Amino acid sequence: MKAAIPVWIAFVPSSVAWGIAAQAHGLTLDEIILMSAWVYSGPAQFAVLLPLAEGKSAATVLIAGVLMNLRFLPMSTALAPYFRGVKRLPLVTASHVVSASSFIVPYLQYQKEREASNGRSVADGYGNLGFFVGVGATSFLVWVAGTAAGFAIALGFPPGFEEALKFILPGYFAGLLVAEMKGWTMPLICLASIVTAIPGAMLNPGWGWLATAALIAILGWSFERWRSHA
Amino acid sequence: MAFSRIELIFILGLSALALRALPQLFLVGKNFPESWDRFLRYLSYALLCGLISVTLFMSGARFEARAAPYRGIALAVTIAIAYKTKSAVTGMLVGTVLVLVFSWLR
């Protein structure tokens, strides 16, 4: 449980920020709690907030959310070998609490254990799953409670704060991205995406920014591959 | 076919669960290619940045020319503070206060 404390601390500001932003965009408390508990993905929840609030097409909302959630594939794949021997139902149930933060803590712990055993795989699938659920499920509860708290906090703001409330979530994600950035490829991708999203959204408010972001990611990734092969 | 917001959230949650659970069920013992892992990371970063831009500077298909310089300054300050302090929360708080001050001044 002690290993989960940094994740809880990281989840408090982001969940509260999302709750505040969701309330400012007109989502109800039921919708906010359902989304936090059932989708349970900060970036995807951020990605669908605007199209959902503006009543954009279902396809726009779903594609924005799914593209953002694709990063769960490598995370879940990386965890899978450590849960060997666990039955399918507990695996599927536990996989719901895979998130970027709750993935990295158990994953590093499993790798440490494997190194300590001289590279032999740790075979205790249920033990590993227990550790993962301990981190993941408690972080999940902090996330859901935090978004509800954010909703309540936003209700307490007097009129005139709308502009600031709407800045909280993009501001928080911008800060997160910058704090995590390494090398040159990521900052260039981010800068290009910020700039090209505007003409993209002018051409098509629903799909434009999604298309330009995907194009920039493909270009950045291709350029990096080309450079590494050159 | 029109969906309500609750239905959309439900479908979105199902898709998230599928993306989380499928590797657990079918990819045990397999490696996810490192270059694809990097591509998905770039994709989520690019999407987040595009979204930040659209949220701050656009209203539908209209560029918010009047508010954009103020929000742009607040975003730049947020980024600079978060980079300097390595704290997203500090950056966000300073940026939010700045946006609030700008909105009162305008």
Nutshell version of this structure?
Chain A contains eleven helices and no strands.
Top keywords for this entry?
heterodimer; A: mainly alpha; 2 domains; 78% helix; B: 106 residues; mainly alpha; 2 strands
Tell me the layout of helices and strands.
The complex is a heterodimer of chains A (230) and B (106).
Chain A: H1 5-24, H2 29-39, H3 42-53, H4 58-69, H5 72-79, H6 88-95, H7 100-116, H8 125-155, H9 162-180, H10 185-203, H11 208-229
Helix pairs in contact in A: 1-3, 1-8, 1-9, 2-8, 3-4, 5-7, 7-8, 10-11
Chain B: H1 5-26, H2 34-57, E1 58-59, E2 62-63, H3 68-85, H4 88-105
Antiparallel strand pairs in B: 1-2
Distance between the termini of chain B: 42 Å
Query: Which strand-content bin applies to the residues of chain B?
Result: under 5%
| Spatial order of strands in the largest sheet of chain B | 1-2
- Shape, principal axes of CA atoms of chain A: globular
On the 0 to 100 scale, the average pLDDT of chain B is 89
Q: List low-pLDDT spans of chain A.
A: none
Give the CA-CA distance, first to last residue of chain A: 47 Å
Spatial extent as radius of gyration of chain B: 19 Å
Major β-sheet annotation of chain A:
none
Separate helix tally of chain B: 4
Helix percent band of chain A: over 70%
Q: Work out the number of β strands of chain A.
A: 0
The helicity of chain B comes to over 70%
Figure out the total of helices of chain A: 11
What is the N-to-C order of secondary-structure elements of chain B (H for helix, E for strand)?
HHEEHH
Task: Give the number of domains of chain A.
Answer: 2
The largest inter-chain interface, given as chain pair and residues per side, is: A-B, 96 and 79 residues
